[in-house]
Design a protein that fits this description.
By secondary structure, the protein is α+β, with helices and mostly antiparallel strands. It contains 10 helices and 4 strands; from the N terminus they run H-H-H-E-E-H-H-H-E-E-H-H-H-H. The chain has one domain: Outer membrane efflux proteins (OEP). It is rod-shaped, with a radius of gyration of 36 Å.
Amino acid sequence: MRLITTPRRLRVASLPMIVLLLAGALAAPAHAAAPAASPIALRDAVTAAWRAHPSARATEATLAAARARADAAGRPLYNPELEFSADDEGTDRTTTAGVSLALDLSGKRRARRDAAASQLDVAVAQARLSRRDFVAAWLVGWADWQSASRRVQQGEQRLALISRFADLADKQFGVGDISSLERDLARLARDEAEAEQAALLAEAAAAEEAFRNVGGQPDAIAAAPEWSQALPDVTPAPVTWEALPEWQIAQAQSEGAARQVTVAQLDRIPDPTLALTGGRIDFGPASDNVVGVSLSVPLFVRNPYRAEVVAALADADAAAAQADLAQTQLASRAQRTAASYAAVRRAFARWRQSTGTDVDQRAELLERLWRAGELSTADYLLQLKQTLDTALAGAALEGQLWRRATDYLAATGQLEAWLGMNDATGETSQ
């Protein structure tokens, strides 16, 4: 992408962007390192999904149309005109043939070609935005489906443990070790676990549907436990503004609007038409050859086309303002996503280091204490529920980690590099 400026005023970055750029320059090395590579299976699945999705075909068709329009804008403005004329008046007969061509002496063709090049830049950036949004939606759908599937597995474990405890409570009640109230409490806990498991299954089905809608194939990819370790760090948050498609779109639109001003100004300059004519005149028995040259210039008297220039200047100012707004919004988004990702990453790291997340070990310990009479049935169920809820929260937290990581990578221009997608067709690096 070329550096874009407007010919009428100097563009100055907004304050939030300046703060971010200065902070990055002070905290990061001169050449920021690329984020850690994503798992090979994940990047292959994303690339295959993009290639197979209708969005990829639509993007390629849109780019082809934009390239054709750019090529058309670079063609000559005028085609030659061929004219034949015959005049028969009594004994006099005149026959002529001529060719005329309007001349682009003011550079209209060049100005329109430059304006079309900016529109092509917009189309390319929009294609990258479409691909990046697809990739982000795919990763979010995959993360939600993975999280929901793990929550279903945790729910099955919860249901199995509580059902086993309810069976034990029935046996303990049969020999008189516990009261009917405690037995009923265990049965109620089992019924609650069954209801909650049904809700988890419904959530998993909805997550799978959403994942399939973005081109996902649940049976084709399964996450490994260590995949979350491949996510990049947050400090410092590198922001390569030129890599953000939103930035590219805003800048290309601003440049295109500025170039349209030049087009409108040049359209106020009339283009002369040069004509060359040759033929033959017969005067009865005599005849002679004729050759003529003419030059005509249109007069922009009734419509000087000033309003078009005023409109183009206003459009350029609006596009420049939108570019400034995009700078501010992109800076704010980068700050928000980095803070959110850092918070969830810290929470997930603490959860993984916790000693109370081993459900089997803790359930065995609680059962021994209950059998020994050191825990009441209510206390046993309460502590077991806390342990199981923590495990379920961990599965949900990992899904949030991938969601926040995707937002962060997209907002800082790292998503495609992290996945090894280097061009508009979604090719991966080897």
